[in-house]
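Support request, please re-run this one:
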Amino acid sequence: GTAAAMTGGVQFRRESLTVECALLGDTFRFSSSANPANDADFRVPFLVEGWLYAPGTIPASGFIPVADDAIGRWFCRGWQVIDESRPEPHAVTTQLFVFGEIRAARLFPPDQISSEGIEGTFGDEVATRSICGGAGRYLGATGSIRQTPIGINSTVFADGTGDSAPNLRFDMDLIVVDD
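Re-run finished. Output below.
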């Protein structure tokens, strides 16, 4: 009763959600170059996209991302923040999880979750991120995400390195408006 009174009668539900993501290396873009005064200070904005899949879809390596099995699209924008004194974590990002297919008849699928945090490791460390909003069935989302690397896929980063793009698993602990 007290919780309902404090929230104006709005009820909330807690749920767990796990999705996997194959980053699409060919969508990766930096928007500028490294610090010309110090090559070791690499702080530049970037954008990358990926396909979202149901848990258990992506194997540890050799995955070939295709739209056919995808349950949504992932967008990540942020800043690379690499320097000699702290090589990891090497990114500060905003991620958007869009559930459903983006197509001409429905450019903006309503079910979305947004997240903020630091990430980026050269190993298998798990990043914890904040859930900072949602729409559709995830209206008012808050909570946290555990972001775990799960190998690489067949796409290659478009930055000229020739590096294969990674796959990630996102384990979400959500609190959302219950309608």
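Helices lie at 2-6. The first strand starts at residue 11 and ends at 30.
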